[in-house]
Amino acid sequence: MPYTLPALPYDPADFTDFVSPNTFAFHHGKHLQAYIDGANKLVQGSNYEGKSLIDVVMTSSGPLFNQAAQAWNHEFYFNCLTPTPQAIPEKLASLLSANFDSVEGFKEKFAASAVGNFGSGWTWLMQTGPNKLKIFNTSNAGNPMVDGFNPLLTIDVWEHAYYLDYQNRRADYVKAFLDHVNWQFVASQLK
Asked: Which residues does the UniProt record annotate as the domain Manganese/iron superoxide dismutase C-terminal (predicted)?
């Protein structure tokens, strides 16, 4: 069964103070679609045909890993967003405070890591063990699952994620992102 472009769980027009519908159209409709198409092409006729995207990410390498991981990373990223600011669920807020001194401390460290992530890649909040959280940068299609960690939140810092709206102002994009995190989704990823 081929991989398909997942529908967004919200209307991109509702994000007027984050990124424009034009950015969503290119990022979701063009970039993510291209990664899905690339993964479908590369699995066809291979031992990976019929495997889930996550199975491909966890066991492949080279061009197939790049296409599959970028497809998975993007789908996860779009699920991390919400047009309406949310309160952080109590359990997650407690874990953020325990691991980063406070929720604000987490946001400051996450933003600094995302802004400082050199080149193209992703900044992740991941669970590394029971009640243990860590902020981690990956380059290109990197994904913390391949190192045995559980992703909770990610921000795409490839320029295609923000350049139409923010140009070279990555810090402004990261700040706006943190105002649009779907904390319910993030909390639901805890193990």
From this structure: 90-188
31 marked as binding residue? no
| Residue 155 φ then ψ, to 5° | -125, 135
Q: What is the pLDDT of residues 135-156, one digit of tens each?
A: 999 999 999 999 999 999 999 9
Measured distance CA(19)–CA(14) in Å, rounded = 10
Known binding residue 180? Answer is no
pTM: 0.97
- Which helix H or strand E contains 123, and what residues bound it? strand 121-129
- Distance (Å, whole) CA 137 – CA 121: 7
DSSP secondary structure letters along 124-169: EEEEEETTEEEEEEEETT--GGGGT-EEEEEEE-SGGGTHHHHTT-
Q: What angle do CA 12, 5, 183 make, to 5 degrees?
A: 50
State the DSSP H helix or E strand holding residue 186, giving kind and residue range, or none if neither: helix 183-188
pLDDT tens digits, residue range 35-84? 999 999 999 999 999 999 999 999 999 999 999 999 999 999 999 999 99
